[in-house]
User: What shape does this take?
Amino acid sequence: MICYVHSCGVPCSFDMVYSFLSDEKYTWEQMLRAIEEVGGLISECSGEFQNYDVMAQFEDYYQCRSRIFAENIITKIPKGDIYLKEVLQTFVNNVPIYKICNYDKFRRSAYDANLTAQVFVDVREGEEFYLECAQKDNSEYLYQQAALYLSKNKQHKKAFEWIDKARNIAHYNRFTVDSTYAQIYFDANLLASEEEAFKALQILEKCCRNDKRKSIHFLIYAQCVKRFREQYADSTKLAVLIDNALEFIEEGLTDTNKSLSNKMKWRLKDAKDELVVV
Assistant: This one.
């Protein structure tokens, strides 16, 4: 549980542990003893979170050796692992939002569709998890991640229902939600209709050109164009699509904004190499 919280970029307080384990099952002394028994894998909160609004004078905060370590613990767990599934289900049921330090940052990773796809191989359980989350966090980001999860599992009809909810309440995150809508629309129509798949790419293009955080859409657009070319190799639309994708990739590769990580730039370079292959 502490790895999960730390992998989302925030420290884990004893109050969160207390709610997670539940005082119906354990005394607070038993909870402290459980934390001590974990040993050197975790430590009390240090300088990594010194700028956060934590009240370390009132309670203990815990973290792993590093966020990278915490992320590796979570991502290396086998697909469908029952223990991580239990952690996520227990966390969302037991830990109230107000106990989570810097919740806005936490939510960006906590409900990520890639994580839930790794954990919930049963789509019914995965959707039920998101329904439980929505009881506490009625945000467009949550609905967006649920839609992505369902789309990954080929549940396109349900995915559209969730992304429509996100579009109805989106105010500050409109382009990101539109981008997700376009991805789902593209996945649902790629094999069925060249015209409809092209319409989805047009929505993605608008996100690439008009969003202030446009760089987050570049790789998605390039990957979709690659798949479009594989499906419709003789399309008259291909030349424009590939030119657009290469333009966006070049903009991303030359972007000096530190928010665009080196890892993302490597992926953009790989996408460029794939697109220029004849």
Observations:
- The chain is about 65% helix and 5% strand.
- The chain has a mean pLDDT of 88.
